[in-house]
From TrEMBL:
Subunit organization: Homohexamer.
Signal peptide as annotated in the record: none
UniProt xrefs under Pfam families: AAA_26 (PF13500), DRTGG (PF07085)
Transmembrane segments: none
Protein name: DRTGG domain protein
Organism classification: Bacteria, Pseudomonadati, Thermodesulfobacteriota, Desulfovibrionia, Desulfovibrionales
Domain DRTGG: 213-317
Length: 355
C-alpha cells in the first residue's frame, strides 16, 4: 500500500497543517487512511502511555486510532539522547518498519509525519531521508519562507531521494515574494527535477495567537480586560522610541501587540487609543491608574511580564513563528489553504491512488 512521508527543511514549517489537510482531503474522497509519526520530539503521556503530543492531536483530528507505541515507536526523551550520544545506539529503524507494516496493512494510504528537518535524527539513524528510503515511501518536503527559501537544500534532497521525492510545498509565502516564486524559483526547481506541488501564501490568521495564550507563553499575568483574552495577535511592536515615531509605525501595523516598559505611560496611551490587541508591560512594572482605567474602558488587555523589553521581544518572535496549530478555526482555515493550493491530481497519480 502506498505511503507518503511529509517532511520539511526545518522545524515549524507547517507539517501538521499539511498532514491534516492532505489526510482530510483523501478521507473525503473515500481513501482509508493510516497515520504515524515515527519519531516523536514532544514526549507526552496519555493514560500512562508515552507518545508524541502532535501525534495524539493529529490522530484526533483525522479520527484514526492506534496505540502510542505503534504510532510513534521512537520517542526522544532526555534519557534517549544521553544514551545515543554515549554511543549506545540501538536499532530504532526496525520498530518503525514493523509499526509501518501494521498501520498500513489494510489502508489505501498511510501518512508518515516527519519530525524537525529531513536530517533530524541522523545521530541515531532515524532521519527522514533514511526512513523514506527504508520504508520505500513517497515524500513531499515543505519549505517555509523565513527571509528566503532553501532552494539549494531542496535540490540536494531530490538528489538524495530520487524518485521517492514527489515534490515540494512552498509555505507561508508573502505577497511581495510571489512574483519571484512564479518567474524564478519555481522554474529553477522544476528544471532540477523538483516538482512544486503547491505554493501556500502567507495568511494572517495562521500566524495569530490569542492574547490569553500569549500571556501563558510569556509567563505573564493579565491584569485588565479579562473578557477579551481571545483577541488575535498577529505581530508586535516595541515601544522604545519617541511617541511621534511610534505613532507612525503603529498606524501601519494593526493587530500588533505593543511591548513597552511599564514606566512609558505616553506610549501605552497611544497604543491603547490606537486599538492594539494588548499591551505587554515589561520589567514587572504596573501601569498608572489612568492607563489601567483606559484599558478597561477600551477593553484592551494588559499583560505584565518580569523580563526586560529585549528579552520579551525575542520570546515573541519565537512564539509567533512557532505557535502550534490547535484552534478549530485555524485548523479549518489551514485545511482550506491546503485544499486550494496543492496539486492533488499530480499527487494522486504519483501515489497510484484511484478515487
Amino acid at each position: 500500500m502506498p505511503g507518503l512521508y511529509v517532511g520539511s527543511t526545518s522545524g515549524y514549517s507547517g507539517k501538521n497543517m499539511i498532514v491534516m489537510g492532505l489526510g482530510l482531503h483523501f478521507q473525503k474522497q473515500g481513501v482509508s487512511l493510516g497515520y504515524m509519526k515515527p519519531v516523536g520530539a514532544i514526549p507526552t503521556e496519555v493514560d500512562g502511555r508515552l507518545g508524541d503530543e502532535d501525534a495524539f492531536f493529529i490522530q484526533g483530528v483525522l479520527g484514526v486510532s492506534n496505540p502510542p507505541n505503534v504510532v510513534t515507536p521512537v520517542v526522544v526523551t532526555h534519557d534517549f539522547k544521553v544514551q545515543a550520544f554515549n554511543g549506545k545506539v540501538e536499532n530504532h529503524v526496525e520498530p518503525i518498519v514493523n509499526a509501518y507494516k501494521k498501520i498500513s496493512a489494510d489502508k489505501d494510504l498511510t501518512l508518515v509525519a516527519g519530525s524537525g528537518s529531513m536530517y533530524s535524527g541522523k545521530y541515531c539513524g532515524v532521519d527522514g531521508i533514511h526512513l523514506v528510503k527504508t520504508l520505500d515511501v513517497k515524500c513531499v518536503v515543505i519549505d517555509r519562507f523565513q527571509k528566503e527559501l532553501n532552494y539549494d537544500y531542496l535540490v540536494v534532497l531530490k538528489e538524495s531521494m530520487g524518485d521517492n521525492m514527489v515534490g515540494v510545498i512552498l509555505n507561508d509565502i508573502p505577497p511581495t515574494f510571489m512574483d519571484e516564486i512564479t518567474t524564478l524559483i519555481k522554474p529553477f526547481l522544476e528544471r532540477k527535477g523538483v516538482k512544486v506541488l503547491g505554493v501556500i501564501p502567507k495568511d494572517p490568521l495562521m500566524g495569530t495567537i490569542k492574547v490569553g495564550d500569549l500571556a501563558d507563553r510569556l509567563g505573564g499575568k493579565i491584569i485588565s480586560a479579562h473578557s477579551r483574552t481571545d483577541l488575535p495577535v498577529e505581530s508586535f511592536l516595541i515601544g522604545t522610541m519617541q511617541v511621534e515615531n511610534f505613532m507612525t509605525h503603529f498606524r501601519r501595523h494593526r493587530n500588533s501587540a505593543v511591548i513597552v516598559g511599564g514606566d512609558r505611560s505616553d506610549v501605552q496611551l497611544v497604543a491603547l487609543e490606537g486599538e492594539c490587541p494588548c499591551l505587554v508591560l515589561t520589567g514587572n512594572l504596573y501601569p498608572n491608574d489612568i492607563i489601567l482605567t483606559r484599558s478597561e474602558v477600551l477593553e484592551t488587555p494588559i499583560i505584565i511580564v518580569r523580563d526586560d523589553t529585549f528579552s520579551v521581544a525575542k520570546k515573541m518572535e519565537d512564539i509567533l513563528s512557532r505557535h502550534k496549530l490547535r484552534e478549530s478555526a485555524k485548523i479549518k482555515h489551514g485545511v482550506e489553504l491546503v485544499e486550494k493550493h496543492i496539486d492533488f491530481a499530480y499527487l494522486k497519480k504519483e501515489l497510484g491512488l484511484r478515487y
